Amino acid sequence: MVKDTKTNYTLNIVARWVVGLVFLFSSFVKGVDPMGTTFKVQEYMTAWSIGSITFEWALPLAGFLSVGLICAEFVIGILLITNAYRRLSAWGLAAMMLFFTVTTLIDAITNKVTDCGCFGDAIKLTNWQTFWKNIALDVPTVWIVLTRNLRRKRRFERDGLIFIAAIAAMVIFSIYNIKHEPVIDFRPWKIGNVMIEEREALNHMTMVNNETGEEKTIDYLNGHWDEVPAEYKDFSKWEIISSTSDEPFEIKAPGFTMMDFENNDHATELLPAEDGMIIVTVHHLDKIDEKGARDISTALSLAQENELRIVMLTSALPEEVQTWLYQNHISGLDHLFADATAIETMMRGNPGFMFIKDATVVDKTRKIRELKLDK
After folding, report:
1. Do residues 216 and 372 lie in contact, with contact meaning Cβ atoms separated by under 8 Å?
2. Rounded to an integer, what distance in angstroms lies between the CA atom of residue 158 and that of residue 84?
3. Which of 33, 80, 264, 294 is 20 to 30 A distant from 57 in Cα terms?
C-alpha cells in the first residue's frame, strides 16, 4: 500500500494529467474521423489471426467497435483529469494500456499492420515508436493504479454526470463526423493543400562494358550528367543499353492514381487543371442511392454550365461503371479508376465532390449544391 503523502498524491496528479491528456488527444484525432479508425480496425481484422482462427467475420462490426474504442479512450481521459471514479478509471486505464502494449509489440515484431492509427492521420509513428510510447505511458499507469485510493472522495452524483456527459459528447461528435467530412482534416487532401510537387527527375542508365560484358546501372539527377563517374562516359568501352527516368512530379498522396481502361495513369496530367476540375469520388459504386445518383447528375450539369472538366473517380470495374451510368441515365461523364482506400482518403462521402485547380484542393463537400467553384 502506497503511503498517503503529499508527494505521492502530487505524483498521482501529474501521472493522471499526463496520461489523461494523451488519451484525450488520441481519442479526439480519431473521433474527428471515425471512418478512418473503422478502416484501421478492419485492417487489423483482416491481417490478424490466431492459428486457424481469423477475424474477418467481425468486419461488419468495425464501425461500432471503432466508435466504442474512441469513446472508451475519451472517457478514461476525462475521468483521469477530473479525478472522477478513481478505481474505475485506474483499472480501465490499466486494461487498455495492457491491450495497447501487447498489440503494438506484436505489430512491431510482425509488421502485419504498419501503422496502428493511434493518433489517426494527425501523427504517424512507426510500430516500434508506438510500442515505446506505450511503454513510456505504462510507467505513470502503474503509479495511477497503485495510488488509486489516495484521498479518494465518494462523489457519485458528480462523477456520474461527468461519466455520462463524456460518453454523450464523444458519441455525438463521432456520429457528426461520420455523417459529414471531418471537422478538422488531417488527411493529404485537405482544403488548401497543393497535391503535386515538382522534383528533380532521377535518371536510370544501364550500360554494358564492351570488353568484359559487365552491366552497370548509373543513377543521376536530371541535368547532373557531370556527376556521373568519368569512366562510364567513355563510350568506346561502355554502351548504353537502356535509359529511363522517374516521373518529375510527385503526388502528395501515396498510392493515388487516376487510371483509364488501358491502365494509363492520368493523375499528374489532370490535377494541375488551370481552369479547375470537379472530381466525383465514388469508393463503393454499389452503395450509391438514388439521391447520390441525382447529385452526380447535378455535378455533371454544374461542370457543363461552368465549362469545367469533370471526372468520376471510382474503384468499380469498367463494365460496372458503364452499366450504372446507363441505368441512371447519365451520359458524358468521364470516369477513371483508383483504389477504394485511396478514394476514401480523399473523401469519406460516397459520393463526394471536390473542386481542384492548379493542383490545389479548393473545396470539397458531400453535398454538390455546397461545392464552391473558385475560377
Report:
1. no
2. 8
3. 33
Q: Tell if the pTM clears 0.85, that is, is over it.
A: no
How far is 17 from 20, CA to CA, in rounded Å?
A: 5
Q: Which of 23, 13, 7, 12 is nearest to 146 (CA)?
A: 12
Strand order in the sheet with 277-282: 334-337, 309-314, 277-282, 352-357, 360-365
All cell numbers assigned to 127:
510500430
Secondary structure (DSSP) of 23-51:
HHHHHHHHHT-HHHHHHHHHHHHHH-EET
User: Is residue 205 within 8 Å of residue 240, measured between CB atoms?
Assistant: yes
Give one DSSP letter per residue of 127-145, joined into a string: HHHHHHHHHHHHHHHHHHH
The C-alpha cell 483508383 sits at 338
pLDDT tens for the chain, 375 residues long, are 678 888 999 999 999 999 999 999 999 999 999 988 988 888 888 887 777 788 888 888 988 999 999 999 999 999 999 999 999 999 999 999 999 999 999 999 988 888 888 888 888 889 999 999 999 999 999 999 999 888 777 788 899 999 999 999 999 999 999 888 888 888 899 999 999 877 666 778 888 888 788 888 878 777 676 777 777 777 778 888 887 776 667 788 888 999 998 889 999 889 988 889 999 999 999 999 999 999 999 999 999 999 999 999 999 998 999 999 999 999 989 999 999 889 988 998 899 999 999 999 999 999 999 999 875
Contact by Cβ (8 Å): 34, 63: yes
Three-state DSSP class for residue 193:
coil
Helix boundaries (H) for the chain: 6-31, 34-47, 62-82, 86-110, 127-146, 156-179, 267-270, 290-305, 318-327, 340-346
